[in-house]
Each structure stands twice: as C-alpha cells, then as structure tokens.
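REVIEWER CHECKLIST
Item 1: Sequence provided? yes
Item 2: Single chain? yes
Item 3: Sequence as submitted:
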Amino acid sequence: MKVIDVKDLVKYYGKNKALDSISLNVNQGDFYGFVGPNGAGKSTLIKVLLNFIFKKSGQADVFGMDSQKNSVDIKRITSYVPSDVRYYPNYNCYDLCKLTLELNGLKDDGYLEHIIKELNIDPKKKFSELSLGNRK
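Item 4: Structure as written out by the authors:
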C-alpha cells in the first residue's frame, strides 16, 4: 500500500520554485528521510502533504487520499512536529497538554499523568522553560 504518492508536484513562493516536479512513492513499512540544504523543499513537501500550504500543480496523496480534498481525514491519522515549536509559552506543561487533548477531542483517562511521569517533566513548569526535545 502506498502511504505517500506524489506525482509531478510543483510549488512556488512568489517567483521562486520551491518544488520542481517532485515525484515520490513511500510504501507502508518504508522509512524515508528528507535530506538537503536550506531551501531544498523538505519542509515545503511535508506542508503540501498535510495541506498547510497549497501546491501549484501535481498530485499529492496520503494513504490513498488527496491531500487537499481529504486534509481533515489525513490530519486525523497523521502527526506533524515542526522544527519550530510555538505554543502558549506562559501555559504550564499540564494545562497545555490538557488543552491539546481537548482540542483533539480526546479524554485524559490518566494518559496525561502517565506521559508527564514518563518524560520526567514538572507539570507546573512553563512550557517555554522546557528543552526543545520535550517541547516537541
């Protein structure tokens, strides 16, 4: 099964071509990493796949679904951690995690306390005081 199926994907930022007819197939069970210099299009490709930005042309499917037409369904079954994590810096860890669960329609059921304990995080610590890895 193709998890990602990209054909002739093109994306411009103004006059700058960020993606130039990219084609890529990732099958279930495959592991891929995007490697390249700044401006190569790594983040742009991921953002197109998740419909955070729009492509100029081409096709981008995730789990057999069109990335633009089915973006809500795709976001329900995928996760994305940006390199620059910006949440509410004055929230403490517990409140921010609880808000994230609620916004995603999930119930706590003790999971939040389990994660905080596993990561050895002070639940009263401000989110902005966490290391980059813990913020992600």
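Item 5: Key structural point noted by reviewer: The beta strands are 2-13, 16-27, 57-62, 65-66.
Item 6: Recommendation: ____
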